[in-house]
């Protein structure tokens, strides 16, 4: 993927519809979101944070937070899902994904704010991540979770992922799914971004 300026990323976001009709915006994180993202992690329950970070932590370590907001570096990307709550943009979920060109795969991890779990945000975000993976040229998308994380395992199973043994840690389980559709068949802003960067879209469609 051609290197893009950060302000280019800001043009590309997706609007998802939840089961209850609410609108959720999924966009690339920006440096200005750093403190809000940190605040989001601090407000997760102890269990949700443990499941997301695979260990006890009250917040993201500073170096990890810096990596999260450095979008595109090393083919790694962070998106946040936001909703307008009381007239204020609130982060309700986040996801981090990394593209491996050699393996034609994308690895991802995500979390949903405790108060917003059960509203369909996780399922919608999983579908969006598959489009983002396809946009990068991936044919497989996968994630790892703790064997004790029944919520994530249920979400993955519901989203059509299959489970395999984790290659290096018995405490984890891997879930993966093959991407059958071409990226333009499951359009999302990330596909438009990738296509525009490669000159595959007319100028009128890349803005």
**CATH architecture field:** 3-Layer(aba) Sandwich
Beta-strand content estimate: 25-35%
- Counting DSSP H or I runs of 4 or more residues, the number of helices is 7
For the largest beta-sheet, the strand count, sense and barrel status come to: 8 strands, mixed
- What structural class is derived from the secondary structure elements? alpha+beta
Shape: globular
Can you identify the CATH class?
A: Alpha Beta
Give a verbal description of the structure.
The chain is built from 7 helices and 8 strands, in the order αββαααβββαβαββα. With 207 residues, the chain is an alpha+beta fold. The protein has a single domain (6-197), classed as 3-Layer(aba) Sandwich (Aminopeptidase), CATH 3.40.630.30. An 8-stranded mixed sheet has the order 1-2-3-4-5-6-8-7, with helices on both faces. β3 and β4 form a beta hairpin. α5 runs parallel beside α7. The longest helix has 15 residues, at 121-135. The two termini are 18 Å apart.
């Amino acid at each position: 993927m051609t290197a893009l300026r950060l302000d280019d990323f800001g043009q590309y976001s997706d609007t998802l519809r939840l089961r209850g009709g609410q609108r959720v915006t999924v966009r690339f994180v920006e440096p200005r979101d750093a403190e809000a993202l940190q605040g989001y992690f601090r407000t997760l329950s102890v269990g949700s944070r443990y499941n997301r970070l695979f260990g006890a932590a009250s917040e993201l370590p500073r170096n990890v937070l810096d990596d999260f907001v450095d979008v595109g570096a090393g083919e790694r990307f962070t998106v946040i899902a936001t909703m307008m709550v009381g007239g204020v943009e609130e982060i309700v979920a986040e996801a981090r994904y990394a593209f491996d060109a050699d393996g034609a795969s994308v690895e991802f991890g995500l979390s949903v704010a405790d108060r917003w779990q059960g509203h369909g945000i996780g399922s919608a975000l999983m579908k969006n991540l598959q489009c983002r993976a396809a946009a990068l040229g991936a044919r497989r998308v996968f994630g790892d979770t703790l064997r004790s994380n029944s919520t994530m395992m249920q979400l993955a199973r519901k989203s059509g992922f299959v489970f395999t043994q984790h290659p290096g840690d018995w405490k984890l389980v891997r879930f993966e799914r093959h991407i059958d559709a071409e990226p333009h068949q499951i359009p999302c802003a990330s596909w438009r971004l990738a296509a525009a960067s490669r000159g595959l879209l007319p100028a009128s469609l890349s803005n």
